[in-house]
Design a protein that fits this description.
Largest sheet: 2 strands, antiparallel
Mean pLDDT: 85
Number of strands: 2
Distance between the termini: 65 Å
Protein name: C2H2-type domain-containing protein
Subcellular location: Cytoplasm; Nucleus
Region (Disordered): 1-25
Strand order of the largest sheet: 1-2
Structural class: mainly alpha
Organism: Acer negundo (Box elder)
Biased composition (Basic and acidic residues): 1-19
Order of helices and strands: HHEEH
Radius of gyration: 23 Å
Length: 68
């Protein structure tokens, strides 16, 4: 019966581990995305990504200056 007890303990341990790892990715994403494109409202992480976005998606427009 030793294996039965180990199995139950392993199941409890795995359940606790899986429960801790679950979280909302929407919250983490909202914290990471700080800059948004004024034209198409795409959310980006930083000013460099905004500049790259403008050069590829809006080549005729000028990227806005960095606002801190």
């Amino acid at each position: 019966m030793t294996r039965g007890k180990q199995k139950i303990e392993a199941q409890k341990k795995n359940a606790e581990k899986n429960q801790k790892s679950k979280g909302s990715q929407f919250e983490a994403r909202a914290v990471a995305l700080k800059v948004s494109c004024p034209i198409c409202k795409a959310q980006l992480a930083n000013q460099n990504q905004l500049n790259d976005h403008f050069s590829s998606k809006h080549p005729k427009e000028k990227a806005p200056a960095e606002s801190s």
